Known about the structure:
Number of helices: 2
Order of helices and strands: HEEEEHEEE
Radius of gyration: 28 Å
CATH topology of the largest domain: Immunoglobulin-like
Structural class: alpha+beta
Shape: elongated
Largest sheet: 4 strands, antiparallel
Distance between the termini: 121 Å
Amino acid sequence: MSIFHNExxxxxxxxxxxxxxxxxxxxxxxxxxxxxxxxxxxDIHEAEDHYRLTVDIPGVAPEEIEVSMEDGVLEISxxxxxxxxxxxxxxxxxxxxxQGAFSRSFKLPETADDTEISAATSHGVLEVVIKKRAALQPxxxxxxx
Length: 145
């Protein structure tokens, strides 16, 4: 018969350490997943003569934003950089502000004029205006003989 020596306090301490380790790993996964999944919110409005996209990108410098149009696809991309490198070294208990690169693409209708696009930022909001092409008006063609 073997004698088993039970020390519940040591086991409880080991259990606490293991839980702390798991919680720390989970917190790191959440921060990494959240930072890599940043997608700015976009509103799209269609008016009679233009389309307007309004993009929430607070904290992104205008020089970090790129707007391009190719083959009927409008792409908005950029990056929110770390403001203070010293803050990056801190052990946050909660971190909700996203950092890093983002990209959004939109297939525009054929009525969009890819030569008439303007973009401007103000107070953390990017506004992209795309003019519509002039609609083809039906016309009567006279027949001569």
